[in-house]
Design a protein that fits this description.
Layout (H helix, E strand, L loop, with lengths): L1 E5 L3 H13 L3 E6 L2 H11 L3 E5 L9 H12 L5 E5 L4 H9 L5 E5 L6 H12 L3 E3 L1 H14 L7 H11 L4 H8 L3 H14 L7 H15 L6
Parallel strand pairs: 1-2, 1-3, 3-4, 4-5, 5-6
Helix pairs in contact: 2-3, 7-9, 7-10, 8-9
Amino acid sequence: MRVVIAEDLALLRDGLIRLLTASGFEVVAAVDNGPMLLDALTRGRPDVAVVDVRLPPGYSDEGLRTALEARRRVPGLPVLILSQYVEQLYARELLSDRSGGVGYLLKDRVGDVDRFVDAVRQVAAGGTVMDPEVVAQLLTRRSRDEPLGGLTPREREVLALMAEGLSNLAIAARFQVTDKAVGKHTNNIFAKLGLPPSDDHNRRVMAVLTYLQVNPAPPA
């Protein structure tokens, strides 16, 4: 099973290489920064990637953002995130993409070698592995923020129609307003849901996922 490792700390990177190699994995690349990771994932297309959230050059969330970009280019690419903290926005985006295995583990909980190796195998096989603390933080934030609570009635109506798959033009026709007016509503929705500027399609997907978590679709 071919694996790519992304970790900027040399000792930990070497330890992961030794551990996974001893467990029967083939480490095809071990990198320490975002650009090298993207190249290794898109060109090498491994069976699974083990990625630290914080990588050079910015040491913020380059690893996680690079993994998301790689999955856009290689749909279904299995990724297991290792981190010392929970990056909530991008973690949510990673978990919302159901095409391929994903995992998010906190480093201080990866003390059981057998469980860690099993997690890597599960993600490679298309499964989902979540650290309990990651789940708790995501649920706590969602409960505390009540993400839809700040939307106006019209913004809620616009979001509901977005969830039905309507474009801004179709929503404008439904409300008999201009496309520009609907665009203003959608930008307000993105801002209130804490979705930073990025590709509008991705923000629409995340906004709709938030809506559906609060208003689940009825069974068919």
